[in-house]
Amino acid sequence: MKKSLFILLVAIAGGTIISAYGGQADEGEPTKVAEAFLKAMQKQKFKKARALCARSSHETFDNYVNNLNPENPYPYGAPYEIGNEKILEDLDMARVYYQQEGTRKIITLNLNEGQWEVDFDKLQMPSFAGIDEDSEEIAETPSQHAQRHRAMREGRAPEQIARAFLDAMIRTDYATAKIYASKSSESALDLTATNPEPTLTGYRITQVRVDEPRATIFYIEDGETAEKELALEQDDLGNWEVFFTKEGSTETPLSDEAQEQKNADEYREYREGLSAETTAANFLGAIARSDFETAQRYASYSSQMPILMLGAAEENSMSGARLQRVEVNGDKAVAYYLEGEETVEKELKLNRDPNGLWQVIMTKDEGAADAVTNPAEQKQRHADKNVAVRRDRSAEEIGTAFLSAFAENDFALAKQYASYESQTSIDMLEMSESNPLKSARISRVVENGETATLYYREFLDSTEKTLSMNRDPNGFWQVILNKDSEGNID
Q1: Nearest in space to 255 (alpha carbons), one of 234, 229, 236, 235
Q2: What percent of the chain has pLDDT over 90?
Q3: Among 5, 117, 288, 374, which has the minimal tally of Cβ within 10 Å of its Cβ?
Q4: What is the C-alpha separation between 403 and 55, in angstroms, rounded?
């Protein structure tokens, strides 16, 4: 009640009464709110302008105002002329067009509980200036991208597309490389183009694997011995295209099983010939002396991030861990240990890695090791726990809810819409000083069978970025978030 009265008083003070109505999007209302906002900004009445913005964009608005440079021309100071209004009822969104200093600009508003609110995040996106008011698209969609390059892709096998892409990379002809790459790869290619030196001088293809709608091309660069991978998928027209990552790598992300195998191979020399008891003792000993790098040698791939998180904590809660005994049951074992002066034993589970050697299983639970069964059971348990918020919701609804949770710094809520494997990545983001998804706004979601791609933009960045989605064990959509040790999000 107080909130509604406050909004009404702010509107009256600006000479405009903003009605609170339910459901129906009345024509003219978005224009009134947009004009009130522009008037407030023109007179630098920032408190009033902020009240007309969506709460989710208040932080962006505050940052904008706080960083205004008095030595530079004030962007909102020039006279303006309000133009047409376009209401997109199916999206609960409206666009109000206006002219300022010979440039057509746009204010985007969202309908929230019957109230039109300025979306300041979208207002500040450079890509929103000069939009054709008859256009429904902000940027070229993957379907349009596929159609535009259809002639160069049609009828060509994955290996042919891969060779055309790699040959273009050798020539540093990134415009041609984009013809054979996905729409989401363009920003990565633009970033690569800033390097004056070619990133690839030569290659030879070693093998080709096709499992429609995906394919993997394995190749070795000239002067190298390690095999690399080039990921391809079929575009919306059924033609093949390359997926190129922002880091300049075209390697396909490894599956959980492949990651576990890689981890087992990497630490094989440290585990070979050790009993479950010795493995547990080595692990707890390393943890007790805060030697987390050594502890990782005796732990599963899924345990690596929890170990890093324990190392990043202000206090090592397991610094006094002492092994008491180990009980072995086939390929599984339980290590019982005490912490500090405590007398109640805690459990640490072990199993055999893909090479048949003992490894510790650890998850983050208030800084301590927690009992874990196996990845499949953990994924099912996580899906069952969050079935109420996921049931019968589309991929777009789940993606929007996930990003909205990040906008509010509600990491606990974000976890409900994310996969089991994403939980530690979200924990790491919560612990970091910055939230890279704070200003992320969803552009669209493209579904492809059991998987989907969520496209989003960040504040002051017109480049579309992506997150992957898939269906959880119960068949409901979930977001997959991966954060590497340098803070990059995949």
Answers
A1: 229
A2: 19
A3: 5
A4: 14
